Amino acid sequence: MKISVRQLRRLIKEETNKESNDSLDNQVDKYLSQYESEAHRSKNESFRQLTRRLLEAEEGETPVASLEDFDMSAFLDDVTRLVNNYDSLLEVRDTILRRAKNLIASTYGSKGNNAFDRSLREEHGMSIGKSDREFADDEYAAPGGDRAGADVGGGGAP
Description:
158 residues; 2 domains; 67% helix; extended
């Protein structure tokens, strides 16, 4: 089976996203890395300067970054925002469920995977990727107008 470069890139991206979302550490590290980059940019370090510094660090001449080039206040503003809003920024609930499902799938295969999904849905009223409210809305949604029954004449004026 031949696979195109485009398909390979898509598969790698999907796998990377799965791995990064399966760990709270990876989710937090992604935010911290972003905040660090932004803190360096806020000190107006040019890309050229950063590239030169990285090349010099590889040659062992100077450290990659110095505190003088880093906006600690901006970094900590972002970190405290993450701490105060972790529940809406990190996928704690789904991460735990995905990791549990991955454990079951790796140990018990597709049958275990299917049993996990079924039990999670039927016995615990949960689904990966949906909040409890979204799940309940899906489970108890009113039928669409096209599926409504015939008029039985109850309650309306003639």
